[in-house]
């Protein structure tokens, strides 16, 4: 079987059904990513938990968006970039930030640029950043806690980005207008 199933509440394994029901209640639909992840209840639960933990970290909405979209764009996730574009709009993040991330141009502030650069380094170097990169990140106003929170965000995005690559998850209708391909 090479095509991944996108589950509805009724077709999902029993342990995933309450999680998908919660998605339906929260979003008014079951996002396709959630439907794919439902095949393995543990990964769906882990994704939800990581999302909640990262969203409730010390990072504000702009910073969350920078971390998420930096990873999505670098991973070339054609599902997550449009989804997080829509999510950023719902979170009232300035479109200039989202467009800079989508187009791989400079962030509108030095602090957000430092977050973007550091997140990219963490991702590309698999966490093996050097002391100068850490110092530059701290000099921009971030703390040790934020380094660890980026790792949390990376953990969440690896689940979604890798799943979407393998499953070729179709973009949800509400986010189709934000379709994206890496230039």
Explain what you see.
By secondary structure, the chain is mostly helical. It has a domain of 119 residues: AhpD-like, CATH 1.20.1290.10. Helices cover 62% and strands 0% of the residues. It contains nine helices and no strands. The model has no long low-confidence stretch (mean pLDDT 96).
Write down how many β-strands occur, each being a DSSP E stretch of 2 or more residues: 0
Mean pLDDT reading? 96
Query: What is the CATH homologous superfamily assignment of the domain at 60-178?
Result: AhpD-like
Question: How far is it from the N-terminal to the C-terminal residue, by CA?
Answer: 32 Å
Indicate the topology.
Elements lengths: L16 H11 L4 H6 L3 H15 L5 H14 L5 H11 L4 H9 L6 H15 L6 H9 L4 H24 L16
Helix pairs in contact: 3-9, 4-5, 4-6, 4-7, 4-9, 7-8
Summary?
With 183 residues, this protein is mainly alpha-helical.
Observed structural traits:
183 residues, mainly alpha, AhpD-like, 9 helices, 62% helix, 0% strand
